[in-house]
Specification:
Largest sheet: 5 strands, parallel
CATH topology of the largest domain: Aspartate Aminotransferase, domain 2
Number of strands: 14
Strand content: 5-15%
Number of domains: 3
CATH class of the largest domain: Alpha Beta
GO molecular function, one term: 2-aminoadipate transaminase activity
Radius of gyration: 22 Å
Organism: Aspergillus thermomutatus
CATH superfamily of the largest domain: Type I PLP-dependent aspartate aminotransferase-like (Major domain)
Strand order of the largest sheet: 5-4-8-9-10
InterPro entries: Aminotransferase_I/II_large, PyrdxlP-dep_Trfase, PyrdxlP-dep_Trfase_major, PyrdxlP-dep_Trfase_small
CATH architecture of the largest domain: 3-Layer(aba) Sandwich
Protein name: Aminotransferase class I/classII large domain-containing protein
Structural class: alpha/beta
Amino acid sequence: MPIRALVDLPYSVSTSSCFLIVLSMSSTPCINLLKGSPATARLPTQRLSDAAVSALSKLEVTVTGLDYGPDEGHFPLRTHLAEWLTGYYKPSQLIKADRICVTGGASQNLSNILQVFTDPSQTRYIWMPQASYHLGFRIFEDAGFYRRLRAVSEDEEGMDMEFLERALAKDGAVAERAEGYKHPESYRKIFKHVIYCVPNFSNPTGITISLRRREALVRLARKFNALVICDDVYDFLHWPATHCSDNGNSWGSILPRVVDLDRTLDGGPRDSFGNVIKLPQPLTARNVTERALREENLMVGNGDLFVVPGDQFSTYQDQRLRLCFVWENERELAEGVSRLEKVLVRMLNEEKS
């Protein structure tokens, strides 16, 4: 009988022991609906290899690409990205290359933004949806905002702007510190607050912020000197709707905008990476995940992984599971959902007996 050792995920608000030993009674193959990486069959390995060989055969690319290069990134690449983004968003003014910075990825770019536009001695709080992308928590804390992350409640339209406005106004009475830790630079502006969001298909809830909430968010940011960071990694990954324009997008852009090209280039699903389900009472996410692994060899995500650290009032953790659809193939996805159904039915029947 195989033994599976699970380590409690970081930022869990659970007070249970750090290590949880689960005995898997099932001899069936494991199905992983927790892993958020794209399936290896979807990775465009050969296409990227061919592109690299082609690019490195050009002297103008190798000289700047293998040397230090410009701080903002390879200029021809930035120019091409500007043209691509202009064609997609169709803004009133053309997007220029000097508004684009190329980094190692969206998470690294988030760290860069915090280094330039925040100062822990002057920036008060990081505001984010009550259920947020969990790998962003550590980035904010490493930037000096440990214990200064604040959760904003959500509904089907996104973050509650009335709640956020009250919270920002309440904090506005706090006196600002005269001196900061960072040297003044021409490119630097220190904001009093940071508002982080994933506007389209938010991870993990799948919520897309409505147009009126986006407009309200911009007004609040201007009123309270807040930097809005849109971690829009899923913006290109959706299907066209009949009421939208021909490219399926009618929002325009909110800056600073962090766009992760990896999500577009990996050839993964074009509609959704996962789904969050609410459990019927009195079932809890922790108990269901333990039983699913032990009885059905099925791995699913516990909702408390996405709770903003320090948010003691959230009921999100015990009520929801996250099912991710990018790692397993379609047959295993269907089988995984079937196994989860068996676990839930058994647990509900036990509650009735």
